[in-house]
Amino acid sequence: MRYPSLILDDVTRVHGSGETAVRALAGVSLDVMPGELVAVMGPSGSGKSTLLNLAGGLDKATSGRVVIEGEDLTKMTPKGIAQLRRQRVGFVFQDYNLIPSLTAAENVSLPLELDGERPRKARLLARQTLDLMDLRELADRFPDQMSGGQQQRVAIARALVGTRRLVLADEPTGALDTHTGEEVLRVLRERCDDGVAGLLVTHEARHAAWADRVVFLRDGVIVDSTGPAGSAEDLLDAAPA
């Protein structure tokens, strides 16, 4: 029996208290299976980024459970959560977040080295991950020697290196042109097809159409969901008014 890589169980996140309290998420439940890419859509302020931060242990739920590969984050210490995040969760950000003074291979190997892996083995694993993504020729280049699309693909490699089986992507194509954005999503889709669980936050219907399932958020609540859309037009038709 397969189990979800990610479980959000009746998760609530409230910022502040009293009359100034803001409820960013209100009882959200969501599972992501290995090999599944789930897209999250919704207007600004709907709770998309909050959901992603909770899913990756970057923020703490006010109530409810967040479970990553069987580990309940609500029962773990901050140190334990940080270790789990380094080892099992990969983040892909809109602005890449590559370190300018490091080569592609060094950027990809950095999370492994921070987790105590020997530099030589970490660099070998980084190059192997770059090879899997057809980025071998970029291994020794610095970020300013790459295009935006190449930098984002390196960022995806960094999110996947080692034993990570859950990838969280926050508007990863927002700074890219249409063609390059589609190539980045193709890479993410292929990695999910290989067994990685993916959670993608996007405001673009044509990007969400790459997902196996689309979840619509509004005011911190899941208001609808759909299976494979088939096309961006189908997805737009399915989106709640």
From TrEMBL:
Protein name according to UniProt: Putative ABC transport system ATP-binding protein
UniProt GO cellular component terms: membrane protein complex; plasma membrane
Lipid biosynthesis in keyword set: no
PANTHER family: ABC TRANSPORTER RELATED, IMPORT ATP-BINDING PROTEIN
Single Gene Ontology MF annotation: ATP binding
Pfam family, one: ABC_tran
Domain ABC transporter: 6-241
Naturally occurring in which organism (per UniProt): Knoellia remsis
Keywords associated with the record: ATP-binding, Nucleotide-binding, Transport
Domain of life: Bacteria
Coiled-coil intervals: none
